[in-house]
């Protein structure tokens, strides 16, 4: 390709290090698509003869069909996917293939291909997340009334419903989807035609190629277009945040599946046994999702550090942009599916959750709220009175609701029997009707909104 300038070939080490084809072959579809848009524009603008442009377009179609059928045959000497396509084009149509690279460089080419790939990755992840949300919403609806312990500090705090818990993750995923959507919108500018770094003297039409490739507009600055990778970083940041959410849910799956909790029974399809302990059913899928998130966050850091010291415009360092993005995409895509499958098929032991929700004086806040509402006692004082009741119950080894009324009245004589109505976990969750609260009616309302948003 640059034989004119060089007397000797590259060393084997250089060839191996320099070649990106082992990984950038994933860009073949985008590369051919962008080349087709480019050559159509070259023909239309009269930069190459229309007959030549047509021959090139036909050759590109053939290569697309070949790759579709049999994949890309790697040749390290041809460096990257761009050279592979051009080389094959030359084999098919002869020297006229050389006209394709008019008014373009691999620098704008790779930036364009990669943007197209990442844009599509945003769409794929969005679809997978929508399916995942549908699973959460179905569980949210089914378990809208099922009470479980709500925790702060992983200590029993107040009862909540399992449906409410699922819908919390629905909200996180909703924001994750909006982050991918933002990233997609921001990245949707075409680098094609920026050429090596300075633009070109040929009368190109960058608006036409941008439009043909579904971009909103051409990137406004050629130096920026070929050298920034913030679009990839936007994707990785969204992926890192999303994987963080998945990891928290995965952690809860691991915890809930452990015998002391026994809140869920893992589905066979998403767990493994042990080669030595016959009783085992391990939450491997959830653990891998939790572990994958660490690697996804690592990809974001990796690319940020690659980028941070690069002077404008293109440097070969930028070739290190692809592996982190491919890795993050692959890990995130499988994580969404695996965690979705785990949640969809797990058995939820709602009796056990309800019993656990009654432990730890979880309705103490309801007791204090009753004192405020019925006894007209200031909350701070009510908190103190309730604390004394909890201490007494704890000393006796009974639940708050099991303390005799006379004992409660010795603590404060404004207490009457109606306090017992608020001490059950059902009455507790039913009372939490503030907007966004855990009351079953609220959860069902949130589920209805979510179904509408998902088109279900
Ligand atoms: N394979 C390169 C990359 O992935 C693109 C080629 C640009 N090469 C160059 N020498 N300017 O970034």
From TrEMBL:
Catalysed reactions, semicolon-separated: 2-(N(omega)-L-arginino)succinate = fumarate + L-arginine
Provide the primary localization: cytoplasm
Where would you find this protein in the cell? Cytoplasm
Which Pfam families did the record assign? Answer: ASL_C2 (PF14698), Lyase_1 (PF00206)
In this chain the Argininosuccinate lyase C-terminal domain maps to 361-430
- GO molecular function terms listed in the Swiss-Prot or TrEMBL record: argininosuccinate lyase activity
EC annotation from Swiss-Prot or TrEMBL: 4.3.2.1
| Signal peptide as annotated in the record | none
Domain Fumarate lyase N-terminal, first and last residues per copy: 4-298
Q: Reply yes or no: does the keyword Cytoplasm apply.
A: yes
Q: Which UniProt keywords apply?
A: Amino-acid biosynthesis, Arginine biosynthesis, Cytoplasm, Lyase
Superkingdom assignment: Bacteria
Q: What class of enzyme is it?
A: lyase
Name its pathway: Amino-acid biosynthesis; L-arginine biosynthesis; L-arginine from L-ornithine and carbamoyl phosphate: step 3/3
InterPro entries, per the entry = Arg_succ_lyase_C, Argininosuccinate_lyase, Fumarase/histidase_N, Fumarate_lyase_CS, Fumarate_lyase_fam, Fumarate_lyase_N, L-Aspartase-like
Keyword Cell cycle attached:
no
Q: PANTHER family from the entry? A: ARGININOSUCCINATE LYASE
As for family, the record states:
Belongs to the lyase 1 family. Argininosuccinate lyase subfamily.
Name of this protein: Argininosuccinate lyase
């Amino acid at each position: 390709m640059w034989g004119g300038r060089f007397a000797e070939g590259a060393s084997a080490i250089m060839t191996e290090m320099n070649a990106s084809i082992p990984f950038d072959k994933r860009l073949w579809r985008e590369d051919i698509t962008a080349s087709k848009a480019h050559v159509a524009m070259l023909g239309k603008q009269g930069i190459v003869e229309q007959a030549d442009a047509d021959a090139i377009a036909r050759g590109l179609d053939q290569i697309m069909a070949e790759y579709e059928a049999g994949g890309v045959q790697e040749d390290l000497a041809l460096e990257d996917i761009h050279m592979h396509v051009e080389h094959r084009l030359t084999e098919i149509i002869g020297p006229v293939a050389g006209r394709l690279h008019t008014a373009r460089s691999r620098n704008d080419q790779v930036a364009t291909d990669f943007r197209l790939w990442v844009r599509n990755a945003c769409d794929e992840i969005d679809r997978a997340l929508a399916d995942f949300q549908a699973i959460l919403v179905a569980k949210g609806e089914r378990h809208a009334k099922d009470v479980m312990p709500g925790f702060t500090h992983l200590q029993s705090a107040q009862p909540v419903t399992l449906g409410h818990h699922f819908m919390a993750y629905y909200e996180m995923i909703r924001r994750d989807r909006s982050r991918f959507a933002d990233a997609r919108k921001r990245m949707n500018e075409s680098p094609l035609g920026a050429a090596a770094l300075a633009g070109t003297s040929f009368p190109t039409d960058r608006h036409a190629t941008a439009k043909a490739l579904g971009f909103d507009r051409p990137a406004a600055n050629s130096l920026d277009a070929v050298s920034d990778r913030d679009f990839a970083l936007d994707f990785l940041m969204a992926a890192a945040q999303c994987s963080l959410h998945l990891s928290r849910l995965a952690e809860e799956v691991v915890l809930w599946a452990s015998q002391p909790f026994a809140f869920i029974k893992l589905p066979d399809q998403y767990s493994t046994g042990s080669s030595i302990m016959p009783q085992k059913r391990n939450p491997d899928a959830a653990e891998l999702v939790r572990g994958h998130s660490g690697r996804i966050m690592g990809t974001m850091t990796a690319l940020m550090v690659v980028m941070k010291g690069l002077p404008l415009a293109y440097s070969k360092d930028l070739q290190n942009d692809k592996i982190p993005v491919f890795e993050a995409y692959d890990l995130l895509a499988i994580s969404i599916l695996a965690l979705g499958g785990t949640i969809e098929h797990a058995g939820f032991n709602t009796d056990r959750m309800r019993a656990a929700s009654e432990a730890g004086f979880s309705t103490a806040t309801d007791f204090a709220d009753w004192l405020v509402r019925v006894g007209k006692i200031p909350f701070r004082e009510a908190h103190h009175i309730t604390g004394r009741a909890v201490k007494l119950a704890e000393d006796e080894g009974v639940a708050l609701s099991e303390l005799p009324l006379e004992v409660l009245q010795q603590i404060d004589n404004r207490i009457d029997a109606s306090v017992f109505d608020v001490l059950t976990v059902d009455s507790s969750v039913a009372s939490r009707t503030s907007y966004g609260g855990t009351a079953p009616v609220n959860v069902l309302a949130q589920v209805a909104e979510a179904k509408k948003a998902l088109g279900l």
